[in-house]
Amino acid sequence: xxxxxxxxxxxxxxxxxxxxxxxxxxxxxxxxxxxxxxxxxxxxxxxxxxxxxxxxxxxxxxxxxxxxxxxxxxxxxxxxxxxxxxxxxxxxxxxxxxxxxxxxxxxxxxxxxxxxxxxxxxxxxxxxxxxxxxxxxxxxxxxxxxxxxxxxxxxxxxxxxxxxxxxxxxxxxxxxxxxxxxxxxxxxxxxxxxxxxxxxxxxxxxxxxxxxxxxxxxxxxxxxxxxxxxxxxxxxxxxxxxxxxxxxxxxxxxxxxxxxxxxxxxxxxxxxxxxxxxxxxxxxxxxxxxxxxxxxxxxxxxxxxxxxxxxxxxxxxxxxxxxxxxxxxxxxxxxxxxxxxxxxxxxxxxxxxxxxxxxxxxxxxxxxxxxxxxxxxxxxxxxxxxxxxxxxxxxxxxxxxxxxxxxxxxxxxxxx
Length: 416
Description:
Largest sheet: 7 strands, mixed
CATH class of the largest domain: Alpha Beta
Number of helices: 8
Strand content: 15-25%
Number of domains: 3
């Protein structure tokens, strides 16, 4: 019996929540067949099994959180069984082609299989009971992941007073959450929504941004009448590749970052690192919450290619098919909160980036044109920036450049 452990999913992730099992006990699986969907702090991903055989056990149910390295599924492979309860490394003698970090196939000595005579294949022998361990200091208590210890510390929970429900008494997240609930005063009503998965990741990142980045905000109202006309002309030329307003303003932002590179940077220790590539993040609202997909090398894309990339990433985010790498590595973010019908917002910088550009709704407003009052399409642009990387002159210069592009898009794009 081979126990396949939850592999390292990258980006320093230490655990994942089981969203859905794709197989059941008794099913036959092939090498690299997806067996489960798990949700990490970055995305929902399918986990392929590197074994071929018959599923004999699923180690967890939907909603359970398991640690990287803990058993995920047990498979009876042809040719014998491993000792029960032993987590073995995935086989490297087969060319499975899987891509998850922490396991894979290649050229390595084959594993030794050990046959056993007792216990039917579909049974998992229970571990031999052991006597209660002596009380130990809190810092010696076994927990399933560092995140569980951090959760307890943040809520003032003494791990030494918790009886773990994991193997060998290991304390799991659910044990700490139960202890937290026990310390809370009774509620007369209401609904509790746990901060897990993507929601927890977003909350942690926004909290860290507010804690570490001394941000400031500048804003300006712009006449977007010609921008709407330019977009209409572009889409009339190639209706099969429509260009979105977000793509146009994102394109202007990329051009502006070339002129004001301080805003395409990050602070590391006591240094400001100016980045050569522009990996453009953009806020996208999905059923799973707010996501920030990243279009890599946005500086190398023209307006239509950038628009296509934004559309593709948005669709993937809403379908839940973005990989963790699609949600990390951004250097600058644009946020079109105008789709929610609001004019402006003091957006929170997407840590560890240095700035975020916000776009409000476009509405009819009175506007002075050539000394006369006219009704124009006006929107508000805002820029929140890390005051450590630049001052108001640089931030204002960038925002004014983007505003000028919005008001004179034909000149800025050079495409019409």
